Amino acid sequence: MYRIGSGAGFSGDRIDAPQSVVAAMAAAGEGGAIIFETLGERTLALGQIAKKQDPQRGYEPLLEDLLEPILAQCIADGIVIVGNFGAANPPAAAASIQALACRLGHDEPRIAVVGGDDLLGRIDLSQTERWDGDGRVADFDGDVIAINAYLGAAAIADAIRAGAQIVVTGRVADPALALGPLVAHFGWSWDDLDRIAAGTLVGHLLECGSQVSGGFFADPGVKDVPDTANIGFPIAEVEADGSFVVTKAEGTGGLVDLRTVKEQLLYEVHDPAAYLTPDVTLDITKVELEQVAPDRVRVTGARGHPAPVRLKATVSFYGDWLGEAEISYAGPNALARARLAITTINERLRLRGLPVRHRADVIGTVSAFDSDDGALLADFDGATAGDYRVRFAFGAPSQREVERAVQEVNALYCCGPAGGGGVRQSVRPQVRTLSHMVPRDLVRSSFQFAGGGS
Amino acid sequence: MNLPVRVFKLHEIAHGRSGDKGNRLNVNVIAYEAHHWPVLLAEVTSERVAALFAHRNVTRVTRYELPRLNALNFVIEDALEGGVNSSLAVDTHGKCLSYLVLGLDVRVPVEPGEGASLKPALQSAR
After folding, report:
1. CB pairs below 8 Å between A and B: how many?
2. What PANTHER family is this protein classified in (chain B) (predicted)?
């Protein structure tokens, strides 16, 4: 049996979460791997921008905070650390970990750096097809910041077999973070598609951290979760045949049950018979779940089909400037005053000739469900008295035009409806992304040890 | 014999989660109780889900059925006003949108008589 723990499910996750996972794995005394998934599509582009400004940046900003409390124990207990926290700059992340180890008084750990995902300047986008899930989103004609392919698990597995104690990657398919250590440990053949599928399923269930163990789940009185301030991140106990149990550390909050596992099993899945990854096409339609003990769910039945012939790559562009501004209305007739604020801003944008995309929502009505044209708000017939907050959003290529639009919301203080208060405003640049499908033979993943390790 | 039918919110018999990739949303809907699986199949149709998202001008809704899990998975194209890096929406990921689906009214067969006020056993799935 081999344990895979999760240390982070996104960039910005609870930074103390890995500690209970590592403590439980160390107590079991059988090594294993802890995986960190901290790389969203946008995060990677922001990393590329940061790297352009400073060649020592561009990796996960919280890397040291995440690893400092656990690095010594992982090394001492043979727990391999695998993370895509290298983002746009895996070598710099490796150097940072080396410096951290040195500062903590350890020998230099063997750190492997996985590369090959960065395709900027190496492919002609006009010769590739767009991924169909971007639908009607228009092509962008702005400057390309980054092109990164989703790599599979092979280089991670090779690095661990070669003795890596820490594997730093950039863009890899999220489940590859778990599949790599499992292939290295069990020696599964890449042609053994059901085993590769099972390892991919381990990664899929763990890649979002606590989302399988009680995070993103609590619905009071309906789906109660104990101790939401201390949710234990998941640990998978994987057998050589690919079956596994999802659990979490003793004494932590959260829960692992059929409901939490089902929600995560289908999370960000499209066709459940064909979840596409670089290593395998995963079929979860025959998966069986069994609650074998409290906070222990057994997962069997993953099926594998050959991997797709093309890899997905994220293409990042400089996008619009995004301006946001909010103002509150409360008490009698608040909703009517909020609506008047919206029509007033619409008219001001027209009068001033500001060609910005814009949208307005009244928070407290239908803001999360509505469309850009406010169709649901137009039909909303809830209480007119209340505590409502109007939120405006503006987008345009011109920073100056977005700032002027935001300034119009600020001007509602004196010129807008009665009793408007609490204006907050921000303007920031956006990165936009589209996905393209690229031929496999243009992507070569490999690893090398960071300087000093051997 | 046909059992009498009462209207519940889908939220009372099922749970679910939404996720995004690009401009595509998926929403899974999972029955707490196996005996409500036929209700999901009959009541939570692609057409009804498409109608919930009509204001967002979605272009296609595909329903996948997972009978072993008592779950449906809806894939909703062009639901996210451009997706997380382009949208002006409050919730650019669409993370709240599973609850738009869970707000559907569904007709649930209930035992006649006293049981007609059947309250689904919400927490018994463990």
Report:
1. 147
2. PTHR47708, SI:CH73-132F6.5
Those residues whose C-beta lies under 8 Å from the C-beta of residue A145, and which sit 6 or more positions away, are A45, A48, A49, A316, A317, A318, A431
A127 within some domain: no
Closest CB from B56, B122, B126 relative to A371? B56
CA A288 to chain centre: 26
* A58 phi, psi to nearest 5 deg: 100, 5
Domain assignment present for residue A139? The answer is: no
Cβ-based neighbour number of residue A452 at 10 Å: 14
Query: Looking at the partner chain, which of A266, A268, A363 has a beta carbon nearest the beta carbon of B21?
Result: A268
Nearest to B29 by CA among B91, B100, B77: B100
Q: Quick one: A256 and A338 in the same domain?
A: no
Query: Does residue B39 lie within any of the structural domains?
Result: yes
Q: Give the integer Cα–Cα distance in Å for A59 and A44.
A: 8
Of B66, B75, B89, which is closest to A270 when you measure between CB atoms? B75
How many CB atoms are located within 10 Å of the residue B104 CB? 19
DSSP 3-state helix, strand, coil percentages of chain A (rounded to 5)?
Answer: 35, 30, 40
Give chain B positions within 8 Å (CB) of A264.
17
| Count of structural domains, chain B | 1
Q: What's the pLDDT band for B126 if we cut at 50, 70, 90? A: very low
Whether residue A369 and residue B100 make contact (CB cut-off 8 A), yes or no, is yes
Task: Give whole-number Cα distances, A62 to A10, A86, B101, in Å.
Answer: 11, 11, 35
pTM of the model: 0.95
Q: For residue A431, what is the domain's CATH number?
A: 3.30.70
Length reported for chain B: 126
> Per-residue DSSP letters for A323-345?
EEEEEEEEETTHHHHHHHHHHHH
Rounded to two decimals, the ipTM of the complex is: 0.95
Looking at the fold, whether A93 and A212 belong to one and the same domain comes out as yes
Structure tokens at B13: 């018999």
For residues A218 and A87, state if they share a domain. yes
Scanning A228-257 for CB atoms below 8 A from B yields 257
Confidence bin at B113 (pLDDT 50/70/90): low
pLDDT tens digits, A208-248: 999 999 999 999 999 999 999 999 999 999 999 999 999 99
